[in-house]
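G.,

No rush on this.
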Amino acid sequence: MASTLKIALFISIFCIFLVSPITSSKPHPLDSLTAAELLLVRAVVNQSYPSSNHKLTFQYVGLDEPEKQLVKSWLSKPTTKPPPRQALVVIRLNEQTHEIIVDLSKRSVISDKIYNGFGYPLLTIEEQEAAADLALKHEPFLASLGKRGLNISEVICSTQTIGWYGEEKTKRELKVVCYYLDGTVNMYLRPIEGITLAVDLEEMKISQYIDRAVPPMPKAEGTEYRASKLTPPLGPRFNGAPPTPPGQTGFNIDGNIVSWANWKFHLGFDGRVGPVISLASIYDAEKRTYRQVLYRSFISELFVPYQDPTEEWYHVTFFDCGEFGFGIYAVPLEPLNDCPANAVFVDGYYAGQDGNPVKVSDVMCIFERHSGDVMWRHTEAELRDQEVREVRPEVSLVVRMVATVGNYDYILDWEFKPSGSIKFGVGLTGVLEVKAVPYNHTDQIKEEVYGTLVADNTIGVHHDHFLTYHLDVDIDGDANSLVKTNLVTKRVTDKSIPRKSYWTVQHETAKTEADARIKLGLKPEELVVVNPNKRTKPGNKVGYRLIPGSAAGPLLAADDYPQIRAAFTNYNVWVTPYNKSEKWAGGRYVDQSRGDDTLAVWSNRNRGIENKDIVLWYTMGFHHVPCQEDFPMMPTLSGGFELRPTNFFEYSPVLKTKPPQHLSWPNCTA
């Protein structure tokens, strides 16, 4: 029997490489797993459990990245043998979670551990769809539809996670929520309220069904957003972007390494977090070398708590990366609309529930952005005998992905500027999560409805979005410190001077993790990650400054169960020492987690962070009070933050940039 399995595994592996060869015998150590490698992982894992009585499911497969120093050692001598290619595999088998490490070169499992802690792994699309389909065959649910006068052929169902609310024991369950089409594809705006339906994922059967009430159904009229279905009066038509000559992208892609202007970085893709930017370095013309800025960066978690505490809604508190997967829910990008004409598109792969690779075509785009903004300019206005004016347009490089997790579309941008800045942008659009109510006018409302009446019978429920970024900074090397530059008001003591006050700076270096927990907006300060071992010619420590966006923090009570699980949002800024295993702020197993494996817990160790290899964590927050303009389709709400060089260069890195050569356009005036 064993020899037969070995032969089958050999044939499977042979076919994998025959059909989909790995393009390089020496891939980059940080390359995402290819389709061929995902197939190899599947074959190895299935060979380890050949006679299972229960269905084996792949919940997550991703690169088990090598230790940082191994990667850096290889980068310093790229002709040497690279670190081993390994995959982290999380499976469910016999109602247990297995953490498996597969060595791709050895084609074998080198570690297999059963996880006995709290929480469950990333959900698969397949099990969510199977759970949703159960509702459409459940007789009590069909009776409820009949009571409401609804046609089953117009009903579509989706799933929601149930969270954790102090239960001692839990089981893998999902809530199923259903919507009514009948004249619209905008399903989220027509919820079928009054029903609680839960599904046991292990047995794949309905474990709870309650029909409490028959509230009104929001109407389909006014919810259409497809251009082909819209009726007058219509809005303005926009001009398209001017075409880009073929082949003129302005940047170069070699494997997974992107080079543009003075930047170079590695681009990856992961089913849980989406885009991964690694080894971002900028060329210093003065020193004639690339200098390190970021070792590895990605969105670690997205927490979305809704603010309706009623029986049917209190559980609606999503962790989009750890429960569903930003990469799994990434969508193909549309040329000319999602990305401009000069964009280059990149495909991505993740493992489906059966372990087979799932391809997401055009999942990321890379493009030069010509924004029409000014990078720098100056006019010597006081020179009377000559005219001196210099202007440089702002040009940057953008990496973009869109994840559609349920009703929301998240537009994720990493933008690199010639000045050395990296901007991290997020756009929120899509459709509101709404609740059906009996009201058509605010004057009718005599109770708390936990949101805004945005249309007849439709409440847009209050909610938050908190995105936590993992930023493994390596500012000119991996020994870094966080410096808090406090702005302090002082009194003028010289009585001969009429000024009474001024402000100055006081520098404070964070020595431990507790020193680096910061709620932004409480006091005037600047935050700079410095390399204390490197100085400029005038003696300043080289660094990069964190320029935050609008400050927003959690408003839930600290002892509320969703906030316990999302304690990583308690501060906008955290700093931890580098630890390969500490990359997902909500913990490895987020579904029904209990908050015992989060960034907040790791930080409580209060480890030393001065002059160490450190990771900067930044949480961007949005408090969303819906309004009528968000209905039926929400215009993009944008936010972001920036890492900007601070005493990193000896002088402005864009001083010697050349202005573009512009075409002469004909005079079109009458």
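When you get to it, here's the other one too:
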Amino acid sequence: MDSTEKRKTRNEWTETEMDSLEKRKPRKEWTEVETDSLIKNEKEIYSEEKGEIRNERIAIIRLAIRLLLMVLFFGYIMIWIIMPVNTYGLLYLPDIYAKGQPGANFLIYSLPILSIGVLGCLYLDLGQADAGHDNERWHARMEIAGLSLGHVGNVCLSFLFFPVTRSSSILRLIGLTSESSIKYHIWLGHITLAIFSAHSLYFILFWASTNQISEMLEWAEVGISNLAGEIAMVFGLVMWVTTFPRIRRKFFELFFYTHYLYIFLMVFFIFHVGFSYFCISLPGFYLFLVDRFLRFLQSQRKVRLVSARILPCKAVELNFSKCLGLKYNPTSIMFINMPGISKLQWHPFTVTSNYNTDPDRLSVLIKCEGSWTQSLYLKLLQPVPLERLEVSVEGPYGPASTNFSKYDTLVMISGGSGITPFFSIIRELLFNASTRSCWTKQIVLITTFKNSVDLTMLDLLLPVSGNYDIEELPLRIEAYVTREKEPTPDDQKLCQTLWFLPSETDAPVSANLGSTNSWLWHGAIISSSFISFLLFFGILSRYFIYPDGHNSGSRYSYTEKQALCMFFVCLSVAMTATLTFIWNEKQNVRKMQEVHNLDEPAPKGFTKPGLWLYNSKRDLESFPHQSIFKNTTVHYGERPNFRKLLRVHEGSSMGVLVSGPERMRQEVAAICASSEADNIHFESMSFSF
């Protein structure tokens, strides 16, 4: 063949040229060398054509990056231009700094230049690939980089569910609770979805640049299923959008309901990567699945609500009947659901009772500040009193251990409703004092309220039942009312108590099978359920998936096998947890009868069951709770000077507990950190569920 023929592919030859070649030598008589030469020539020409198309696409991508670089640079320059203008300083800057000054400064001044630097690297790399005709290697690097992003995202996913596993022995072993580690779940959630978003976007660009955009719709029979990953990413993005503070606070129910999309996210993620690869993330998700199903079982029981105390400051104390064997630590949390208000919403509240001083009661204090709590408050004050209020609970969940009595001086600082965790601590210290096991020489409660009517919450410091005298406890209370300079008539109003008539099916609050009372049961459920899963899947694989041995063809498709794996995981957890739960319920039957006998009788005059609302008028001299006000000093129209108050108690081992607004906690933390004394032990209580 001459040089002209070599420069053309076979499809481009004219009929005359084909005839000429055939006449010169029939195709069947060509030698092997001539045939290989022709094939090689066609491949070279096709590669050149494909390279030209790829170079055109790279040029388009580079143009888009260049335009984006120009926009970022122009916007960055405009910030410096308008910065001296009053409109920027008075109109825009306050709104920007309202979200946090360090973060706002980073986004405004640092992020544009950093983005320009990163995009510039990508722009230059694309130029080198174009100039060097090294597209295949460059695309291989792109694919490896995209896969690496997916691997990193999977590592983050493997830790994502640990913080939200409320009954987690792993968190307890390192001294954490789910409530205190929820911030790690938030950080991990943002990081995981950001990495997975980058992973998805990277592959979309990769497919677009290599003319493989049809790969987006591929659901592979074996291996990675791209379409399943994209569906999982859509669910993840919907969840992610609703987690940002502005949307979450304004549309909390939208955030709450869309968070259940994690179920579909995990299902399609497993379809995307396969169950074998998902085993990297399986441990954390498996423990969460066990915990979530146990919480579901506990929430199906309706608990016995005995009474509700309604305070003038629009706070409500709910008193539940509980099993005698239920133990919990101070500052524990309990989740409450009331179908009469919302069937899906669960809200956490601090347990104010103590299992030592209140052996048959469990109480929570609810400050009516949101829509759900306002609905509860109005329901309790409706003209026709309620006979029964249907309630389900999860918990209580608490810290691994508390030892507040080890300090010579214990200072508790609270703001507003942040006082609630200190109720259970003071009751614990009161019990220890009555048994001569409390070594704390001085206890100081520094609490701030906006209005004087909120002082009525101090009436809940001591338990209703039992013979406990506040004089046994070296307690001093410094109460500050910041918005009023003198008492108002509202703080003289008396509490109201509403008694309920529970249903025969209502049960006392009992321990969840993952709490302090039942760690052995929880461990048994985890181990037995996982062993059951291995047995189920082993039998299925041996006799149904590969009935004739591992070398035979499978009866099930790849997707069906992933679905079967998920099904058997759920079946194993549900079966073992349900059986254990039923067995544990039978053990609690005896205790339930004991609690029925110990239920506090209704006051005199209680003639209509559940329909009696009364003012709890008390003889101030004979009522022992009033002695607590002898130890209380109220300061009107001022805020506490924490530095001065803490300096008074220096010189001995001092524990400082703070519960309240973030600004207060940061202020006290800074004072404790700057103190020259090395005997101050600081602990912040942040309830961020």
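The CA atoms of residues 360 and 598 lie 7 Å apart. The longest helix spans residues 32-82.

Enjoy the weekend,
O.
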